[in-house]
Amino acid sequence: MSLHPVITALRRHKAGVALIVLQIALTLAIVCNAIFLIHQRIQRVNRPTGAIEEELVRISQTWFGAPTGDGAAAIEKLDAMQRTDLATLRALPDVQDVAASTSMPLQGMIYSGNLSLNPQQAGINVMAAYYYGGERLRPTLGVRLIAGRDFTADEILHHGISSDVASPVVIVSKPVADKLFPRGGALGKTIYQDGKPATIVGIIERLQTPTTQAWGSTWAYNSVLEPVRLDGASASYAVRARPGREQAVMREARKALLAVNPLRVMPESWGIQSLSQIRAKVYRADQAMALLMGTICVILLGVTAAGIVGLTSFWVGQRHKQIGVRRALGARKADIVRYFQVENLLVAGGGVVLGVALAALLNVWLMAHYAMPRLPPGYVVVGALALLVLGQLAVWVPARRASCVPPVVATRAA
Amino acid sequence: MFGYYLNLALRSLRRNRVLTALMVLALGLGIGACITTLTVLKLLSGDPIPQKSERLFHPEIDPLPAQGYVPGQSKPPWGGLMPYIDAMNLLHAGKAERQAVMALTQAKVEPQHLGQKPFFSDGVMTTAAFFQMFDVPFEYGSGWSERDGESRARVVVIADFLNDKLYAGRNSVGETIRINDHDYRIVGVLKPWSPQPRFYAVGLGGRSYGNGDAVYLPLQSARADAMDPQNVSCWEAADIKHLETSPCVFVYVWVELGSAADAAAYKTYLSNYVQQQIALGRFHRPEVALPDVMRFMRDMQVVPDDVRLQAGLAFGFLLICVVNTVGLLLAKCLRRSREIGVRRALGATRRTIFAQFMVESALIGLAGGVLGLIFAELGLWAIRQQPAQYAALARLDLAMFAFTFVVAVLASLLAGVLPAWRACMLVPAPQLKGN
Question: Do B323 and A300 touch (CB under 8 A)?
């Protein structure tokens, strides 16, 4: 069927056509970028931490009346209190494993530092998070060891946070090992943590850093396990519960720890929490953002479809007589419907072409101002197809109504 | 005449119920989304201290070593924190009208009454001029003097909610409160004060929105009692038990300057100070900055990117709804070309036709505004359920309420211009010729 009559007819309604084209173009641009953003957020929220999340509980508590000062006696007393706590927790029936641990993935409290291949910190520098903990930290978190060994009990040091002592052995995560030794063979090599030497005795597959903030996103999986029990007025523990028993462990742990030493503070909201709770808290804003954008996209598509239906109905009404004439000249109902569908395809096609350009422009602007990555062309193609299909569906009802115009209309004056 | 237009408009809207409902719904949704996101944006980026924000400045220097320095591009990554020595130098030099040094800390408060367990609360370690500089209102008592601070007196100013919690709201000046295992004497109780956002806490590790800090302690006394600041960054291996002399930053300096000329003069002084330190070999980078409160909040990116993206999306949505409304209004107007032709033939001028269609658009705008208000309240309710820091403050105030209607009517008037123009441009004769 020739396009000439379609185009001629459209040229007589330039304003209306321009409006639909503009509406489709804007919708395509916004929906494509919004869906891309949603996908980015969902990917971010679903990032694995590398730890066994369903079974982990973090206990964060502070003793009041604890020995203060940095003297050796105070440190020994604090360490004894920590070891008592660890023993108490390990004795609980639902607990699978316990370790002293200053941090946990996603939790937010992060110690970090710089790793290099020489003490002057020249050349390759890698930012990493330090997980200070006992020898059971890796098995408690459930992180996979892919090379080397765990720490042994006698390698575990204990000191206060301000101590100068550096641990001679470390376990690093694979991204750290690959960055420092791109050609492999990191195991057994000596690296420098903030200028102090340490030997890599083990490599773990994946452990996310405790922070999810934007400034840590480029090194989100750079972690180092340090064989150090940090002693201070506060101490934190990682507890791995038996499958399905985290809630029970959280209750029992609070009771047991307060029974051993009631002079401690474990705030209700963040003293004892499961890693699932921490994850839900940390990513709630991202999920809300994704939900909001998704809702707006759906509404936007609805509004565009309604606009197409409205305008097309109007055009059908305007061309009542023409349709009658065509039917009188022998056009079938299907021909009339096809006419309107072709017309809609042309208009929507024009809108989609303009929309692709607008989507690219919007993406460039977002890349510059909001550090968004480049929009993959797949999104634009799918979006364009979706809008074309949406346009066709929207025009179907008015087109059916148009095809029902009887040929006798051609013989009437009005 | 206006009553007649109104009458015609109402009739016409009633005749095309579906179309009218569609336009009002689309407009209402667009406006609801816009007002919701704008309210949140205004809340987050509003001026926390409007009476003084152009007179409060935040000196910034760069104490990092020469390694890795690119002139004009390098900036310290910790947003304006200062080493203790330089902060105290600026404080004692006294080149501004007022100046204060501050850091945040977690204060462990032990109530003296039996049966109340100790708890942690947000605290500010600062110097004497803090209260006058930020116009902090006192209910009872007052702040401490510079001499108290220098002599490490154990005094404290507490917030109203802490006073309510511990002393049932009475005048507790002179009482003793145990903070971090030391006894502090209360010298002042504040009236409710919490600037949103807490611009002096941004980047110090504090929450930006909330009820404010609970205790205000003299910096020197608190540090002498080993209270740790919440945000410490060290650029070399450091002894964190002696932060004051280590290569670390952990305090902010805020100054009050009377005018722009004073600000320029202070910036020159700051530059000279840094040059002096470079000559002494302590500093290696000459860049200084002196942003005021609003500029500082922009630099610290207090408004999260997400909030701005949401506002942008809402405006895009409103734009599409307006385009939609234009199209539908156009369709509606042209469908009535016969009626317009008759009216024109009977003597209506182009202006009256235009005015009548604009009144119709305005009516749709009003209806859309009412619906938009309902959607905005719903949207803000949804935001209040979120666990964000600012969630409880997301409310529609009177200004935004009025703004909603202004936006709605403006949007619909804008949408109505093209259809009204096309309608009034119709030539009457062809319309009357039976077709």
Answer: no
